[in-house]
Amino acid sequence: MSIIPRAVLRLRAVFLFGRVQREMDDEMRAHLELATQRYMARGLTAHDARVAARREFGNLTAMADDARQARGARWAESLVTDVRLALRGLRRTPLFAVVAVLSISIGIGATTGIVTLAESLLGHAPAGVGDPGRVVSVGGTRHGHGFDTFSYPTYTDYSRATSLSGLTAIDLEPKALSLLTSEGSVAVRGGTVSGNFFTVLQAHPALGRFFGPSEDSEAGEASVVVLSDRYWHRRFNGDSSVVGRAITLNGTQFTVLGVAAPGFQGPFVIAPDLWMPMRASVRLDKSEGMLTERRDVWLVAVGRLAPGRTRAQAQGELSAIAARLRQSFPDESDLDGVRVDPLSLVPGDGHDVIAGFMTVLLVVAGLVLLVASTNVAGMLLARAARRRREIAMRVALGASRSRLVRQLITESLVISVAAAVIGLVLSNWLVRMVMALVPRLPVPIVVHPALDLRVLVFSLGITLLTAVAVGVLPAMESTAPDLVPALKIDAGATGRRHRIRSVLLVSQIAVSMLLLIVAALFARSLVRARAIDPGFAPHDVDVVSLDLALAGYDDQRGVAQADALVDRAAHLPGARAAALSAVLPLGGTFIGYGAIVVDGRPAPNGQDGWDSGWDVVTPGYFEVMRIPIARGRAFTEADRAGTGDVAIVNQHFATHIFGVADPVGRTFHSDKRTVTVVGVARDSKYGALDETPLDFVYVPIAQRYRSSTNLLVRTVPGARLAQPLEHLVAELDPRLPVLDQSTMDDEVALSLFPQQLALLISGSLGLVALLLAVLGIYGVIAYSVAQRTREIGVRVALGAARGAILRMVLRQGMVLASIGVLTGGLLAFGATRLLSTYLFGVPPTDVVAFGGAAALLAVAAVAASWLPARQAMRVDPMMALRAD
Amino acid sequence: MPKSAPLLNGTLDLIVLQMLRAEPTNGYDLTLRIQAVSRDVLQVNAGSLYPALYRLEERGLIRAAWKETDTGRRAKVYSLTAGGRKHLSEQRATWERFAGAIAAILKRA
């Protein structure tokens, strides 16, 4: 017989072992019948004949077994048997099974979930972008850092680079537009991009067509838009007749050219509702200067590498162009460099920050997986020890060793597979929970977290590896050929196994210690961050974001409408005070009106003026935010256009820039104006809670109109005025859309979100690690007490006090825990330094965090050893000595 | 369940092949025949016979087919393949040399 039919026969045996078995049964039944017939022919009764035939035949089951083995069906069948045996074994010890499966699944779930989140922000190529590997993002740098915007003229200079086949300019922050609908005006986020945007990204329309470079040229300038698939569904119900239709944006007619493919949102995580060509966009704002002024820096760019060119070549070429620009326009360009990065949903430094943060969380989750695996290894060792005699017996009775090892490993495999399935569910749950926790964001950010199968496979791989590793050790040992000692009273090998288990436990406690310290550090930094006084009172402040220009007001009309809005809002039932503010504290945005020059106070480093944060407010702002005026006065209605320009500076500005605590009455120059300081406001937090004090200056909206603003309303405690405020805005002018609604508490929460996420994940994982440590300690101590029952009995019989026995056992637990805590503490001492970027007012070697974690583990160790210690104390010497 | 030594295993294969060369037959008749031919010295247990039969079938030395017996029952009848015939003659030669050697040793001792 050739090799192939033989293989077929074997395969048939493996896959169809049910049928093969039936055939064999048939044959053996035939055998029995023939034999019975023969006995009957010899004169036996039918019954006796059957009994005789059967006796002669021997053990049916054992024989079928042997016969099947010859058939090769053995492998498949024994796998089924092994799995069944493993399940039965696990059912017999439900606590072990639940702890093992749950702890590993938490590890798998957390790692998979975190990597899925990180991938959705960092790993995925943007949807709908052709050949994303050849696409680069281009941003400006200052002193080698950041991913800054540059001007349109700079963009045109960059786009001459030959190493790029195309470069498209993008306004990173989609601008708020007012779309006229039958129910009034609604806000829509429009992305401003150069005409070659879709060409460079190699995107394809789902409907209609895209605009091209000609529609963004001087000759062919067109008021056209392309809708995102998401917005097309939300606003136009996926109606395909929208293509070619005219829509009104900010009072100007635009033609809908087409709809982008589902999922396409441009190259970044910020997802506009629609895109319009750059020329049409700046014309809409009546700010055509944005295309010619090098002073206006508002763009980043995304380019496609020319065939055969590398990113390094593009970087070199653009850097050379940037260097030339610095020489040609030393006063104009405030950029000192350019960076060409691989395309990422989050460009620039944000990418590195998120990647670092996610790495920290991933390491934490990975450590839990490690702890869980160690714990399971320890439990499996203990189980193997308990089953040692049973296994030795089976070896002695002729069970094959490989078969037994396979069976023991199957058990750990079953645990891993179950854990992987539950882990999958958990990771899905984690991703959803985090997505639900993300606070309202000021820009439309859309991510698509898809469960990353590669990660799951990776986690499962680790688990399987651990499972086999931890399964093999006890399996090999307990099936070792040297059976005699095993069959006798447990002795030598037990000590060794116990030592292995102790080492496992100590390393597990060490890692738990590390995890608890990390969790404690994040908890402490969140508490610290919450305790930071932002310098204003964020509770009970409603926020409505507006852009008065969307209703088509000029400056004069805008100021009048702003006043009217504030006045009406302050008189709403439940409102106490209202004000406008161009920037929201902690919102992460800053505005500026150029360098500040103070006579007699030259700026450092030869700069032409001082840098400061700016805000444009109405007089009631300080009352609404409860920012005290330390000196001088707040703004009044009298500070209007035509009267002298006034400003309120913060305390840091006063001492840092003026060099005095009270600069009231002094002046500074900026933006071709001379401004008199009329008051000093107390320092507060402007960009982030953990910032160092900043220079900050407030100017009144009546003197420096700014259409993009936020209406802030202080309410009576607990009242929320979202609904009435929305009505109020619509009442004031139906053309004025509400861009966004939130509360100051939301803004503060948003700035704390990374700390909160870190605490959530590290805290819950730290808790799991603590729980596992308790179980681990309990297991080891209980096992050792069980092993030492006889010894303890002897001690008691010889007169040892019960208290001494109790202390002896407790000491054992404490020694193991202390070694673990010490090792973990040392480990953490070296490792937590890596966390310092993500901590908040807490040193990475915070004594409270280290001490707290150690104390927690010490208490856990005592608690875990208490039960077995009590058991040891109660050992009856008579029973113990009689045992075995 | 004690396993047969390799020698014994091989011997059983040899006996089965030899019996089947004479005449295709089913498992049960095979046990009776071995018993009869060996004058009751060899008691072949079904538990070793069937595994041997399956092993030989898998190695392609014998083939099996369901057939009616004289008494009208269905039984699986085994017969020798060409490969089996060749294998048998080789094994017989080996066995005879081996048996001769053992006999020589035993006689001298």
Order of helices and strands of chain B: HEHHEEH
Give the count of helical stretches of chain B: 4
Biggest interface reads: A-B, 30 and 29 residues
* Class from helix and strand fractions of chain A: alpha+beta
How would you characterize the overall build of this protein?
The complex is a heterodimer of chains A (884) and B (109). Chain A is an alpha+beta fold. In chain A, helix 2 (17-41) packs across helix 3 (46-57), helix 6 runs antiparallel to helix 15 (453-478) and helix 18 runs antiparallel to helix 21. Chain B is α+β, with helices and mostly antiparallel strands and 109 residues long. Chain B has a single domain (6-108), classed as Orthogonal Bundle (Arc Repressor Mutant, subunit A). Chain B has a 3-stranded antiparallel beta sheet. In chain B, helix 1 crosses helix 4 (82-108). In chain B, 29% of the residues are buried. The interface between A and B is medium-sized, with 30 and 29 residues.
Would you summarize the structure shown here?
The complex is a heterodimer of chains A (884) and B (109). Chain A has 884 residues and is of the alpha+beta class. In chain A, 53% of the residues lie in helices and 15% in strands.
